Amino acid sequence: MKRVCVVAITCLFVCAAIVPATETAVYTIHANVRASLTFPASEGIQSIEYLTPGDDLRPVPLQISDGGVTFTVTPQMMPDGAALLVINRPAGLDLSDREPPRVISLSVDGQPAPTAGSLLLPFQPITVDVGFADASGISYSGLQVSVNGARVPRGSLRLARADRGRQWTISYTRPEALDIRHLRIAAEDRSLLRNKTAFLLTVDQGLAILEDDGYSGGKAVHFATETAYVAVRLALPAGEYEIEAVGHAPNSGTNSWYIELDGARQADVVHIPEVQPGTCSRTVDIDPEQLPRFTVAEDGEHVLALTLREGPGPVLDRVRILRDAKEVAVFEGEDLLPRFPKP
């Protein structure tokens, strides 16, 4: 049996199904067979063109009668299964902008974060600010925010416009009683094609606090998921340092961390004992005299992080930073719970 599929036309420009005479609209049509479509004469269709994969506009022949306008789409018009139709295009109208808005700035709780289309956090943020930019301008009505799938009312957001609407910054503040799983912030440009983009923030709180008198300070941090990490900001002069981490792991498949400095993974690995808490080593056989090392290239504030090298399950009790065998800084495991996105 031959499978035939003609999918509904999607309107990208007008809000209603009716297109008043001489108004321009853009449709995307999906089909895998030759199909004839008829629009009522009241929709005012005077010309139809389709956009080729090479961005050329070619006319679609029309059959106009008192009852309506009929045209035919063919598989040749849709090498990828879809065709972009332009209704009543004014002469010289540019359709070249196919680029969606770009994320140009991102901050969490006032701290800058790497600019990207998505971000994974191991903690609940208070405020998230996302900046978008587009040469065609950004549509105010196309700025949409949802949390855990539910739309956020516009009045709950703070919006800042710049560069004549070519840039917008959307600021979202989390209600105290709400836990975020997914935060989606979407933007749409003002081009005829209404290009869209979205930023997605996911919260995965992969750390848990364990309480036991055997731990330093009575507490330790359990790495419960693969995305869990601990991080701290600290001022360090340039030089060579060692990490003395105290912890334990349930087995040999979970007993190591990577060291990251300012987002760059260091050569040495942190290996910790199994079952019973103990001091780490850069060697697999756990020699406390062989502490893991990292190098600071220049003076200043840096972000030091421990990320999982293997599976989840290890427990971190305490961390000391040493230089020339002298203590530079010391942190209980719970002091290293991330409160900012790591680089």
Structural description of this entry:
The protein is an all-beta fold. The chain has 3 domains: 6-87, no CATH class; 102-203, Immunoglobulins (Immunoglobulin-like, Sandwich); 207-336, Jelly Rolls. Helix content is 0%, strand content 49%. The protein has strands at 6-11, 25-31, 35-40, 48-51, 57-59, 62-64, 68-73, 82-87, 102-108, 111-112, 118-121, 127-133, 144-147, 150-151, 157-162, 167-173, 182-188, 196-203, 207-211, 219-223, 229-236, 239-248, 256-261, 264-271, 278-279, 293-296, 300-308, 315-323, 326-332. It is elongated.
Question: What is the CATH top level name of the largest domain?
Answer: Mainly Beta
Work out the helicity level. Answer: under 10%
> How many strands, which pairing sense, and closed or not: the largest β-sheet?
7 strands, antiparallel
The CATH architecture of the largest domain comes to Sandwich
Helix/strand/pairing class, anyone?
Answer: mainly beta
Order of helices and strands: EEEEEEEEEEEEEEEEEEEEEEEEEEEEE
Q: Give the terminus-to-terminus CA distance.
A: 55 Å
- CATH-assigned fold name of the largest domain: Jelly Rolls
Overall pLDDT level: 88
The total count of strands amounts to 29
Query: Could you state the CATH homologous superfamily of the largest domain?
Result: Galactose-binding domain-like
Radius of gyration: 29 Å
Count of the separate structural domains: 3
Number of helices: 0
Keywords:
343 residues, mainly beta, Immunoglobulin-like, Jelly Rolls, seven-stranded antiparallel β-sheet, five-stranded antiparallel β-sheet, 29 strands
